[in-house]
Amino acid sequence: MSEQLTARVDVDLAEDATQQALLSIWRDLPQLRDPEKFDAWSYRLLLRACYAEGRRTRHWTPTLRVLPSAGAASDSSGVIVDRDQLERAFRRLTLEQRAVLVFHHYVGLTLPDVAQRLGIPLGTAKSRLHHATAALRASLEADARTPSIPQERLA
Q1: Rounded Cα–Cα distance for residues 29 and 99 (Å)
Q2: Looking at the whole model, is its pTM more than 0.85?
Q3: Which three-class secondary structure string do you get for the chain?
Q4: Is 59 exposed, middle or buried (0-12, 13-18, 19+ CB in 10 A)?
Q5: What is the pLDDT of residues 98-145, one digit of tens each?
Q6: For 39-96, how does the pLDDT look when each residue is reduced to its tens digit (9 = 90+)?
Q7: What's CA 92's distance to the chain center, in Å?
């Protein structure tokens, strides 16, 4: 139940950011000098609206879904643990690192396209992707080294 509530909150925040971006696009459209760059310009406005929404709420509840592989066992507890670890590691990234990581690995954009859509130099996009990957790896390795607390000690 709480997962469904979390998913609904994320959708609501995404809709709020999208609405703000559309308002900004409509309001600032007369200032767009080069219509050929509309896509990159509108993506930047959308990204700014997402950043603003993220700063406004100051919490982030991911709804990442780990898809099972073809030979996955029926026991999904390992998948849930992996998903939770990935979510924790992803939450530790900065918004800028998350944006580059999602555009490149999830959306499938090339790094030059990511840089153009975010309005940053290509070198900055490469650097953010490198640091995001390193931070994810370090976070996952740190979580793997951290011993879990037995249930008896929690009571």
Answers
A1: 24
A2: no
A3: CHHHHHHHHHHHHHHHHHHHHHHHHHHHHHHCCCHHHHHHHHHHHHHHHHHHHHHHHCCCCCCCCCCCCCCCCCCCHHHHHHHHHHHHHHHCCCHHHHHHHHHHHHHCCCHHHHHHHHCCCHHHHHHHHHHHHHHHHHHHHHHHHCCCCCHHHHC
A4: exposed
A5: 888 888 888 888 999 989 888 899 999 999 999 999 998 888 888 777
A6: 888 888 888 888 787 777 655 455 555 555 555 455 555 556 677 778 888 888 888 8
A7: 11
Residue tagged 């290509």 (tokens): 122
Q: Of 84, 87, 86, 68, give the one whose Cα is nearest residue 76.
A: 68
Q: Where are the domains of the chain?
A: 1-61, 78-146
Residue 122 contacts residue 111 (beta carbons within 8 Å): yes
CATH architecture classification, 78-146: Orthogonal Bundle (1.10)
Residue carrying structure tokens 């951290």: 146
| Nearest one of 139, 140, 109, 135 to 122, comparing CA atoms | 109
* Residue 63, CA atoms < 13 Å, CB-side half-sphere: 13
